[in-house]
Structure formats: C-alpha cells, structure tokens
TrEMBL record:
Origin: domain of life: Bacteria
Any single GO BP term: fatty acid beta-oxidation
GO MF annotations, alphabetized: catalytic activity
One Pfam short name: ECH_1
Name the record gives this protein: Crotonase
InterPro entries to which the protein is assigned, alphabetical: ClpP/crotonase-like_dom_sf, Enoyl-CoA_hyd/isom_CS, Enoyl-CoA_hydra/iso
Family statement: Belongs to the enoyl-CoA hydratase/isomerase family.
C-alpha cells in the first residue's frame, strides 16, 4: 500500500501519511509521494482545500532514525533526503489553496515542520509537538527558522527551537500557533467544519491572499500589491457574485472565474 494516500471528497483533498507502523516517520519515498499528491492539488482547479494528516496514532514522528543509522547512506543520499524535505514544506506553504494540518498523537521534527507549514493547524488538545533537532545534534528544515518566529514571535521560537521541549495542542493555541485544539474525539469534526468554510470561499481571492501573506515586504510595497490584487479580483465573476449575494441576503456560490 502507498505510504501516502489521497482521498478526495468534493472540493477537499485529504492527504494521509500512511506509515502507521513507524508513526508515519518520513522517508524519501514518503516525501516523493507527498509531493505528487500536493502537485495534484495544484493541477486540479476543483480542489478548494487540502487536509494533511497521519494514519494511526500519530501525525508524524519525524525522521526515520532507524533508516538514518544505516552505514550505506552516501552524502548524495543525504542531500536527496534534505532536498525533498525542503521541497515538501515549500510546496505546502506555497500551495494556492488553504492547507489544514490535522494533528493527533505526535508531530515531531520533520513532522512538526510540515504541520507548521500549513495555513491552519488543528491539534488535539493532548497532541505533542516539538523540534528536538538541536538536542539530537541535527538541524531543522522546511523554512522553520523563518516561519516559526513569524507565527509565535522570536522569543518563543528561540525557546522551541533551541530547547526542543515538547508542547501540547492546548499550549499551541495559547501561543497563536494552532487554530484550535479540541479533544481528540472531536478532532476530525472540528477540522471538517473549518474545511467546509474554507472550501466555500472565493478561490481567486484565497490564492491572492495566501501569496500576499507570504510576502516579506514593507508598507509601501504591500499597499501597491494590495491595490493590484483588489483591482484584479474586481474584474472577476466571483466578485460580481459576492456583491450580488450580499445584496440579496444569500450565501455566494463562487466558481473561481
């Protein structure tokens, strides 16, 4: 069976990391199949939202250290593994549709990097996340040294990345890192409600909003870029539909045109 499963339900693509016997530890094969699933979401304009989760009792326990201990891994093998991990997190962050990470159990190391790359993080309140890399003599990836300080502030990011202590979903909500942290029994239902809302939004506006939030620019550049985005969406059918629906007191039906 594939180590990454793609499950389509209407406008939602649910991507499941599928190595439950290894707590969904990442490997070159898993990264490659995950990239393929994410690319499918890019190519299919009917996909409005992606959910990333793990099979079994964990999101992902991170690197498969058992595999890394093997003596026959060359420097080229290591470089391939690192490049794939970076590509996965970059693809999650730059995907044109919202990505929701649904986390139960553990999200550690590379698993945490993928989870925080998502636009929305929904963690079970007792789920455990952490960045243990420095304590293990290795290093983080996935753009975490850039993204995490933007999410929780430099001081808290320093604590999390240098000390490597695990934290719960409830703590992640307090810090503004997670969107919600329900009891595990309610995790899927909470994710589904969020995904339903995200899938109903105007896709062209969502695409531009994601790109705008990812930009590192000053105020002057942001003002110019926002004006350009606003003028662009004002020329779409979705903009006309949104205005009409508001005037008629109904929910809009956006078609991405």
């Amino acid at each position: 069976m594939s180590v990454v499963l793609g499950e389509r339900s209407g406008p939602v693509l649910r991507i499941v990391l599928n190595r439950p016997e290894r707590l969904n530890a990442v490997s070159e094969e898993l990264y490659t199949e995950l990239l393929n699933q994410l690319q499918a979401a890019v190519l299919d304009s009917s996909v409005r939202c992606v959910v990333l989760t793990g099979a079994g009792r964990a999101f992902s326990a991170g690197a498969d250290l058992k595999a890394h201990r093997t003596a026959d891994r060359s420097q080229a093998d290591r470089a391939t593994y690192v490049a794939l991990g970076q590509q996965v997190c970059e693809r999650i962050q730059k995907l044109p549709v919202p990505v929701v990470a649904e986390v139960r159990g553990y999200a550690l190391g590379a698993g945490a990097e993928m989870a925080v790359s998502a636009d929305f993080l929904v963690m079970a309140e007792d789920a455990k996340m952490g960045f243990p890399e420095v304590a293990l003599g290795t290093f983080v990836g996935g753009g975490v040294t850039h993204r995490l300080p933007r999410l929780v502030g430099l001081r808290k990011a320093t604590d999390l990345l240098l000390l490597g202590e695990r934290f719960t979903g409830a703590q992640a909500v307090q810090w503004g890192l997670a969107h919600q942290a329900p009891p595990e029994a309610e995790l899927t239902a909470v994710t589904d409600r969020l995904v339903s809302r995200l899938s109903s939004l105007a896709p062209l506006s969502v695409r531009r909003m994601k790109a705008a939030l990812a930009r590192d620019s000053g105020l002057d550049d942001a003002l110019q870029a926002e004006a350009k985005d606003l003028l662009a969406v004002m020329g779409t059918d979705d903009w006309a539909e949104g205005v009409a629906a508001f005037g008629e007191g109904r929910e809009p039906e956006f078609l991405g045109r």
